[in-house]
UniProtKB/TrEMBL annotation, chains A, B:
It comes from Isoptericola jiangsuensis. This is ArsR family transcriptional regulator. SMART domains: HTH_ARSR (SM00418). The keyword 4Fe-4S does not apply. InterPro entries: ArsR-like_HTH (IPR011991), ArsR_HTH (IPR018334), HTH_ArsR_DNA-bd_dom (IPR001845), HTH_MetalResp_TranReg (IPR051081), WH-like_DNA-bd_sf (IPR036388), WH_DNA-bd_sf (IPR036390). Residues 26-123 form the HTH arsR-type domain. It comes from the Bacteria. Signal peptide: none annotated.
Length: 123, 123
């Protein structure tokens, strides 16, 4: 015969009262979206590329001008840029021979806002 | 006899003038640090855990109250929490049987600030 041990659903005595302990603070969908975007930035070269595009005139740069700052080959840089585009952080436009990448400020601001909301929840 | 091909130090004709094209907008060390922290958040469970801890009273939660919100086993939750601690986003304190995790607001704010700086560079 086996007995089932109930999970500790109720807060322990020394935990704060009145907390919706079991409610996740963000929805699974939101967490999935945020994690996907954070993953796009989980590489130093991609952080440098995003910052370099952002610091370019009109927040736009030709891929031909992005290889030197990060010290990587153009195929590697293009691979990293593709990930940033797929994450919605950069917009890509082909002009003749070269691809140009432009910052999507709203996407970066939304990510910063999500982090700020986390600290704002601390009250 | 070999000849060396100079790297394109000067901006190309159709690039904006006066841009330090070859200077990375963030230092390699900063990019490395940021990427490492973003990597800690590149998982939906970790995003949910960080947000749930942040939304707890005093931005602190017992690991025993964190398994239900994310619907994962305690070893898995502990693994994810360890990554958040190593990234400096949470502080861990053992109290008797249970580990308690507290938000490190400055670390989250620094990350948000780095993203805000990226958008601010767009001028």
């Amino acid at each position: 015969m086996t007995t089932t041990v109930p999970l500790p659903l109720a807060p322990t005595a020394d935990a704060g009262c009145c907390t919706p302990e079991r409610a996740p603070a963000v929805t699974p969908d939101t967490a999935q979206d945020l994690a996907r975007t954070f993953k796009a930035l989980a590489d130093p070269a991609r952080v440098q590329l995003l910052a370099t595009v952002a610091a370019s005139p009109d927040a736009e740069a030709c891929v031909c001008d992005l290889t030197a700052p990060v010290g990587l080959s153009q195929p590697t840089v293009s691979h990293h840029l593709k990930i940033l585009v797929e994450a919605g952080l950069l917009h890509r436009e082909q002009r003749g021979r070269w691809a140009y990448y432009r910052l999507v400020p709203d996407a970066v601001a939304a990510l910063a806002g999500a982090l700020t909301a986390v600290t704002a929840a601390d009250d």
